[in-house]
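2024-03-11 09:14:02 INFO queue: dequeued item FMN hydroxy acid dehydrogenase domain-containing protein, len=429
2024-03-11 09:14:02 INFO validating residues
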Amino acid sequence: MMRSLVLFALGLSKVAYAAVIDQELDEGIPDTGLDTGPWTAGQVPPIAQMITANDFQIAAKNSMRARDYAYFRTGVLDEITYINNLNIWKKIRLNGFSFSDVSDVNLATTILGYEFSAPFFFAPAASAGRAHPDAEASIIRAAGNAGILYVPSISSTLDIEEKAAAAVDGQIMFHQQYIWSNDTRLRDELARIEAGGFRALFLTVDNTGVVGVRSRYERFSNSGNSAHSSSFTIEALNHLRTLTDLPIVPKGLKTAHDIKLCAELGFPAVYLSNHGGRQVDGVPTAVEILLDLHLQYPEVFDQIEIYTDGGVRRGTHIMALLALGVRAVGMGRPPIFANVFGEAGVTRLINILRQEMITEMMNMGQADVNHWFGNTTFINTRQIELEYFGAPLSVPTSSTPFIHPSPPGGSGSASNVTAKRGTMYMAMD
Ligand SMILES: Cc1cc2nc3c(=O)[nH]c(=O)nc-3n(C[C@H](O)[C@H](O)[C@H](O)COP(=O)(O)O)c2cc1C
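2024-03-11 09:14:37 INFO prediction written
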């Protein structure tokens, strides 16, 4: 940072071409020593300098048009939820255990029954073409070659058929959909998504009629009507289920109540998300809602799969969410920022995240990601519980190692999760 400022000051006496970006002050992300001083504004920096997921955001800020970067980066209103998403991890403590064999680490798992090489995925994010001419195609190829799930947005730069055609051999993708007020458009797109070979729908339900007031982006463009239905009731949801044979995963749930409701309505999975802090400012983070779900409806974790996202930038963030009972963890901004380097950038991002997970799992004494799901022995969320509920939710045993029985077929089982959770999360009177 200091060096960047000095270089910037020196540069002013000649031509101020160096891009000086303060990671902490400007973007609210940790300073890990990335030196932007020698970079040239308007150009992508050397990809070798991309060491963390956050570095790609700084590279994107340096190289993208200001309005396009603002579109990707913006949160809603004062960005309180956006910032809380990024900072919630500071309040979580992870318990690591020694004396275990971690010589063979496994990240592979299933999401909605399909096999993937890791429990993280790339979430729908509109307009990838703002970062790179290949648009979604580079994210598709990078994800496909790495065995990672990607769920492109219906508001992509490429159309549905172009995305399907970009898939690599054997690649499994889901597709996101909005509930358009125009029913003809909705039916047409659903048919095309099915025909394109996408295996499931993430149905976004937190963007009803209007997009959030995203002040940072409004400096470039007005927000307003989203063309999404503003009368999306349970009846409308049930009607929609008759329009497609694909499994539907409601995306954008932000209360324990709605998650429980969707479980009762028979959805195979739900997607807990505050849309990356882009819709309603002040709504809680995924961690807080997961804790509320543990408190109010713990049975839901055994009934359906839960996916979530929001501010996930490190392997340890993924691990914390898995320990809270999540099956798979999404990232919206990281892949679209990494895409300023095209496919090579997205591949590098995947490798960074995988390596962070493997390294941290080894150092924490757990070799199989399938033993993390709902394994609260690895996590201490007491600080958040005190802040959010005013009292701790769990009995003080979170540093007692859980001896995981051999799972059937090598993966974690729901009954193990129930046993652990039953002792870990006892509501206060
Ligand atoms: C630029 C941008 C566009 C997005 N577009 C969509 C979209 O079209 N559909 C959708 O369901 N979510 C969309 N999202 C939300 C993401 O799917 C995801 O929930 C969010 O980005 C997660 O937070 P993160 O960016 O901190 O990882 C978008 C997010 C961003 C940043």
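2024-03-11 09:14:37 INFO annotate: The longest strand covers residues 248-253.
2024-03-11 09:14:38 INFO item closed
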